[in-house]
Protein 1
Amino acid sequence: MKPTSFSAVPRGPAAPSSRTPDDQLTFRTLRRGEIVVLAVRGEADAFTLRLWRQRVREAADSATTGCGALIIDATRLDFLSLCTLGALAADAADYRRVGVEICLVTGNPSLARLARIDPHTAGLPIRSTVVAAVTALRPETATVGPGRSRAPLITRGEPGIDRPAYLAGQIVPGHTAGIPDAVIGAATPRRR
């Protein structure tokens, strides 16, 4: 019987990963009047933390030219790490000192509870919908008259896109005989 021999075959460096943070996390900037809304999709974790902070800071800097409010819409995130949440809370505290209020929107009640009990993230305002965040940041935009309230208008802040914007609950007439009138519904939190 021959003794088993092992040969050390040197392995080259590991193949670089083809995934980038841009592949894992996407951002879209919207505006509600002077309020900036940063809608985020994908997974926000340690791998994408640098990109997350860069985009949040860019959006917060653009909010300083307006009324000083930024809403991070994380309702479409598949994952939001506590590390990323802590970084957002730290950025929110820094920008609050210069007059920019940052609010997180998430439909995940567990995440909101965790953020409330952690002393590092307890000061971060968290709401369940963008409409609630807009109302909390600028309560004067939520009322039309005495005792009457309306949902705030959310429009795209991208240049060159001319799309109509509708209020939640507004009746939109059908354009042809085959399309009936429709009522625009307000966004509701996603359940998992």
Protein 2
Amino acid sequence: MNKFKLFLVAATLVYSTQTIAKGVRVDMYAMQKQMVTLIGANDSEEFQIAANNFLKAAQNAKNTMPASLDNEQDRFKGYQAGIQEVINTVQEAQELAREGKLDEAKTVVSKLDALKRQYHKQYK
């Protein structure tokens, strides 16, 4: 019976780790998809919808530690700060779009690609 309990605990840990890793991957994929929509938005309304979807995925990603961080809390804090910078960038762009400055909003969003490269290098 002890071996069975040990197996069950180990299986649960493996499953939770895989679920968390998938969660971050799914959120990152959603962010990428919305980034493409933000850049290609034809109007402020389309931009706002994509920005809201992006921000939901980014917030989920911020709250989930990627498996690549090996449960290192200091690195997780840096990862979260990076995601917050991404969130702040999209919120800035969202505000510009609300003001009717769609081209300026897209220019701000174009910074996301550089942020993505920078933080993927550090935390992926």
Protein 3
Amino acid sequence: MKKWKAVLLLTAVGSHAFAADLLDTVKQRGALKIALEGTYPPFNFKDAKQQLTGFDVEIATEIARRMKVKPEFVTAEWSGLLAGLQSGKFDIVVNQVGVTAQRQAVFDFSQPYTYSSAQLIVRKNESRDFKNLADLKGKKLGVGQGSNYADMAKAAAGVQVKTYPGAPEYLQDLATGRLDAALNDSLLIPFAIKQAKLPLKAGAPVGEVAAMAIPFAKGNPQFKSEIDKALGGMKADGTFRKISVKWFGIDVSKAPAAAKK
């Protein structure tokens, strides 16, 4: 009986040790399945010809190229991206995913590739001085459903938080007076306001500088190494900076100073 148990244990250990790494699956498939919103400019969105474009799209495409596979993009609302990743619908999410302890318990992450902070968005003619989330007590604040900013807003006492599928919806409500302010990524705001063509402006930065990285299923060390190698190579040879400056005018892989709480 003990011998039989030992054989079972050895078989289980052996099966675990030789379990296929995600890198093997991607290489055999010949494509890297990449999920993003497709409605999150300037990170990822559809141009006038309905083609995916943006900072994250270019970064993900370059990662796939360096892995010698084709990029295969899948779009979904933000609220479904991490759930889809967890269920194995795609390999990675390249959509400015903040690295949090809660997410690290479920996923592994690449090295950070962008740094930014949260920032308020207000109407262009706003006379009230909202310096932080505490100033919004009793006021209505719009955020993206399931985002870091939604969690941040809900943690602020007395703020009436309204969640939306994406930025276009809450920017419209903000412009028409249904909201007092909105909250999103400081890197996104100038582009989003310009594209929306609404009477809005960037407000005060709030919270700490956050690191964004690429999540994927746990237990795939070879895959993680390959993703990090691609990102590291892009930073080393100037490719990353070139893409970043194109979309933001700065290198977003460099952490800025902390914002005010």
Protein 4
Amino acid sequence: MTKTRRLEDLWSHIHCLGVLADTGSFTAAARRLQISKASVSQRIVELEQAAGVPLVRRTTRSVGLTEAGQTLVDQTAAAYSRIEEGFSAVRNLSEGPRGVLSVTAPVALGRQVIAPLIPGFLKRFPDVRIQLELSDHLASLATEGFDLAIRHVAGVPDTHVASVICETRSVLAATPEYLATHGTPKTPLDLAGHNCLHYLRRSGSATWSFESLEGDKRVAVPVRGSFTANNSEVLREVAAGSLGIALLPDFSANPALRSGELVEVLRGWRVVGDYAERLYAVRPYTPRVPLTVSSFVGYLREEIPASEALGGRSEATEGPAS
């Protein structure tokens, strides 16, 4: 005979069911809860035994809730949200942020900009632990269990909140040796005679669009080149080998520009519509911003030098993503 579980023994099990419903998989739920996948499965089994009805519908490809499971989640979600808000408010009264901060960022941006800043943050806030995953995959924060995403994109999902960290820009760059051999383009149309190293897009073809700094001229130029890649660090290194002219985000181009390894071309024109013009910190919507998240975003705004790593700093703003 199965022993009847006291309801208060099942609070964490019910919360686990809610996280499972939110993430859609046992693996993602385990990651968010920071427990093993087996522990998540065991809690769900125990909760089903206590409820006397199936709560989760399992298939080889997905996990969903039964009608009973969805009803339980719907009835308890608001209560757990209030508990989370209350605990966050109390924890924020402590001397500083603490706990685990799970962050995702693109590979090139993460390696060149974010990773070098992390030691300073962890020294300032020793009670915080950071889990950083570098991936160019646009992760679903709720599904994959991330607290924060750093994204160099034109827009983010309207289900999230986006904070602008700083403005960025795109840069055309080549080595002095390449330009001495092949000539320096004077206008965007001159790029037709150059080996253009561009970011690999699904369409396969590439068109670079420009606007004059005065804003009175626009031109789109189909470009061709002997090399494409889906990583700006790789494009920079190939350009440094004097192979051609590369279109790079400023965070990849600036170290080589400062050293003189590369020089900027077409300085009188602004590249539009290729790389994004803003760096965002993106988080799932919550009524109260976790202190670890706000502290890390604030730190990035402080430490990313506008004149060094990226193209410029904007006013700190936050609102629903668009």
